[in-house]
Amino acid sequence: MASPSSPIIKKLSKNFLDHLKTIFDYEMDGISRNRYKKKISNYEIIDELVEKLTGRKKYLCELHYAKANSDDPVLSSFFPEMHIDDDGVLPGKVLTILFYIEKTCLGGNFIYETSETNDEKVAIVESGTVLIFKGNLKHRPQKIWGHGERKMISCSLKDNTR
Predict the structure, then answer these.
(1) Residue 3: inside a domain
(2) Is residue 56 part of a domain?
(3) Can you give the pTM of this predicted structure?
(4) Which of 120, 128, 121 has its CA nearest to residue 104?
(5) Integer Cα distance of 39 and 28 in angstroms
């Protein structure tokens, strides 16, 4: 599965991406904040994607939303500093899957540290990008700017492989 030093990068099919956009827009209806996070559950399409990627169905899922309205960079997450996901939303070691549903802003990419050298690397993300990584990978989101949004679904699963 994922290496502790870098994420696995995949691409969602248009069909899956369209389904996830519908879920995201439904769950976010009426929310007018520039940055928002919400736990969700009971969506068969997400169950199917998580099982396809990991072979498992039990996970915790959150929506992450951020909006940029100027050329000044703004935070795109509630976790702006380098962090790990182990012992975060779930106790113990986890596997994280990030589904980038829509990215129309500048920035908002995935920044991570390699475990070998602690160098920062950037994974460029766009609408439809999927990142899979072990919860001990140090990472943070890049700030966003311009005029646009970043919509993402984050899934955390127990990682029994380490």
Answers:
(1) no
(2) yes
(3) 0.91
(4) 128
(5) 11
Alpha helix (H) ranges present in the chain? 14-28, 44-54
DSSP classification of residue 119: -
What SS3 state is found at 27? helix
The count of structural domains within the chain is 1
What tokens appear for 11 in the block? 């691409």
Pair 143, 76: CB distance under 8 Å: yes
CB 103 within 8 A of CB 145: no
Residue identified by tokens 């990419």 is: 109
Q: Are 68 and 149 in contact (CB under 8 A)?
A: yes
Question: E strand or H helix at 94, and its extent?
Answer: strand 94-103
Helix (H) or strand (E) holding 3: none
Q: Encoding tokens for residue 4?
A: 């502790």
pLDDT digits over 50-64, tens only? 999 999 888 999 999
Nearest C-alpha neighbor of 86 from the set 96, 98, 100:
96
Q: Which domain holds residue 136?
A: 8-158
Q: Residue 47 belongs to a domain with what CATH number? A: 2.60.120.620
Q: Could you report the per-residue pLDDT of 75-133, keeping only the tens digit for each? A: 776 677 899 999 988 999 999 999 999 999 999 999 999 877 778 999 999 999 999 99
